[in-house]
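Worked example 3 (structure in, sequence out).
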């Protein structure tokens, strides 16, 4: 058995623990080489790291349960190790054994902080809000079970299809006066189509905002918030002091006003990651000039998905991110309204216009990032998703990224892709590039890349990965894939 002290925790340390033979590890054996000689305190620590070194909540619950069933000694140690039982998982449909497991875990975890993961999505749902088999009554039962432990909540994740369970969660939490340990909140109504242009929030009867967590005053440690299709009372949200904020796939009519949005961002001066996918604040064309200057000196990661180019430019004009290193740009309209894709050339041109070259202050260093709201020249990682633009704009945009090391391109229009692929592979464009990935590549992408084969051979400075998702058995296409692989391009085909 590997040493957990000298080698840390191997990836497979406890993944196959259910196959162990308990008779080999009976406590009290006279053999000095058995695991039974490990002190309980050390064994408890091993169990803790074996379950908490996992990023999957389901695995954390499974491993804690498995460890407690290996032998009587391991069960005694695991049941007395409160940290093993701090992950609560509830999924649809909720069966009695889930409730029993949750009650047991809440008791076994004693005073430890809790990570609560709830996924009540139904794969068979017919998109009718009223017919969903997990309604507000079901969520009410869950809240009654969990609310007595709200002082221990550290991370809460709730994923639903419909609005009723979210509304129930928000309504119950509005009565909570203190959640002292809560650091992470993830609420997701998984319906991106509400972000489509012209769509309004439904059901309209429950459109009104809810002042969760006692009007936001219950938060003392909140650092990371993700709201997907979920709106709150923005004026009393308690969103302050955050390190990460994600707002995505909202209907435009329930977003905060510009004043409310600016107040939230200004209350998070240490913000490091910001993600806005779909709509941001409701921007008035006559907004006061002083409202357009949200300076976030520590923000290094920005993900932006847009529906409308004009709105996108107005929103981007609000920000100033001098420390930006990682940038993701996506045309959301191509997925929620595929019949009306946006031409993103103007958006790319806007980002290029606000570059260090525009600085006229002689005392600033060159290139200047002090006056540049989006310093493309300092980016190290860039993702471009579903963009449709003229080849010249895309090329000029990439020419502004001399320090770029990682580039991901996904679902770009074929004409632009063909125009820049060879220069990217040979490092004629983005000379510092280390990793280049073409994601969700189809047959046309493979064909476009194959045209670069004569140039790709002998250009190993950039690691090129193509993630293809076509299912056909077209022999010429597979021959192109084979040729690309021979040229040193890694092809990952998913069926």
């Amino acid at each position: 058995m590997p040493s957990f002290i000298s080698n840390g925790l191997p990836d497979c340390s406890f993944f196959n623990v259910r196959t162990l033979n308990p008779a080999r590890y009976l406590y009290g054996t006279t053999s000095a080489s058995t695991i039974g000689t490990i002190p309980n305190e050390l064994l408890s620590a091993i169990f803790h790291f074996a379950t908490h070194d996992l990023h999957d909540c389901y695995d954390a619950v499974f491993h804690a349960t498995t460890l407690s069933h290996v032998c009587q000694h391991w069960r005694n140690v695991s049941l007395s190790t409160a940290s093993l039982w701090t992950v609560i998982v509830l999924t649809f449909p909720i069966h009695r054994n889930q409730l029993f497991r949750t009650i047991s875990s809440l008791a076994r975890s004693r005073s430890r902080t809790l990570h609560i993961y709830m996924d009540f999505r139904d794969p068979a749902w017919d998109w009718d809000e009223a017919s969903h088999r997990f309604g507000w009554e079901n969520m009410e039962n869950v809240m009654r079970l969990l609310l007595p432990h709200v002082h221990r909540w550290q991370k809460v994740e709730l994923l639903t299809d419909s609005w009723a369970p979210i509304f129930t969660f928000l309504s119950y939490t509005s009565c909570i006066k203190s959640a002292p340990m809560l650091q992470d909140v993830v609420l997701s109504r998984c319906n991106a189509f509400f972000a489509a242009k012209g769509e309004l929030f439904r059901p309209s009867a429950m459109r009104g905002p809810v002042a969760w967590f006692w009007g936001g005053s219950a938060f003392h440690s909140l650092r990371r918030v993700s709201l997907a299709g979920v709106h709150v009372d923005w004026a009393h949200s308690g969103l302050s002091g955050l390190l990460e904020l994600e707002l995505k796939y909202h209907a435009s009519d329930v977003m905060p006003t510009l004043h409310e949005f600016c107040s939230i961002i200004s209350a998070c001066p240490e913000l490091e990651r910001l993600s806005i996918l779909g709509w941001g604040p409701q921007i008035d064309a006559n907004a006061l000039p002083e409202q357009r200057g949200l300076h976030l000196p520590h923000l290094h990661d920005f993900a932006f998905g847009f529906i409308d180019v004009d709105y996108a430019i107005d929103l981007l004009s609000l920000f100033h991110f001098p420390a930006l290193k990682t940038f993701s740009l996506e045309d959301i309209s191509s997925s929620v309204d595929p019949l009306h894709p946006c031409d993103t050339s103007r958006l790319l041109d806007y980002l290029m216009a606000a570059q260090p070259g525009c600085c006229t202050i002689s005392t600033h260093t060159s290139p200047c990032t002090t006056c540049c709201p989006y310093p493309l020249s300092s980016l190290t990682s860039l993702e471009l998703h579903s963009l449709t633009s003229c080849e010249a704009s895309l090329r000029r945009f990439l020419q502004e990224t001399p320090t770029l090391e990682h580039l991901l391109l996904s679902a770009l229009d074929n004409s632009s892709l063909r125009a820049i692929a060879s220069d990217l592979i040979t490092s004629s464009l983005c000379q510092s590039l280390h990793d280049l990935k073409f994601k969700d590549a189809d047959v046309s992408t493979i064909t476009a890349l194959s045209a670069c084969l004569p140039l790709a051979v002998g250009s190993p400075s950039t690691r090129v990965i193509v993630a293809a998702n076509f299912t056909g058995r077209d022999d010429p296409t597979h021959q192109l894939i084979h040729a690309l692989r021979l040229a040193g391009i890694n092809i990952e085909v998913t069926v």
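Notes: The longest strand covers residues 153-160. The radius of gyration is 26 Å.
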